[in-house]
Amino acid sequence: MKKILSLIKNKLVKPDGTLNGKIISGLVALVIVFVQQVFACFGVQPKGDITAFVGLANTVLTILGLVGVLSDPTPVEVPAKTDKNK
Asked: Three-state DSSP class for 82?
């Protein structure tokens, strides 16, 4: 069991100790689908508009994506321009 938890932690946390935003957002999407499927198995139907729930899930995923992008900015390195004519 410790090995499985260690493997999960290695996927969720980068070697530098920060969370992996891409994995977290994908995991949240799968958890939402899992909860929806469990509710469907037991015949539980949401009383509200289903598109509102989907919109809420999309907003959460968008926020997680934004946080993932902003927490791990990759700088662009421009190579130094060399003049071959000199």
From this structure: coil
pLDDT in tens, 33-65: 788 889 889 988 777 777 787 788 778 777 766
DSSP H helical ranges for the chain: 2-12, 21-41, 50-71
d(CA 29, CA 11): 16
- Return d(Cα 70, Cα 61) in angstroms, integer: 14
Longest Cα–Cα distance in the chain: 77
pTM of the complete model: 0.53
How many residues in the chain? 86
Whether the CB-CB separation of 19 and 70 falls below 8 Å is answered with no
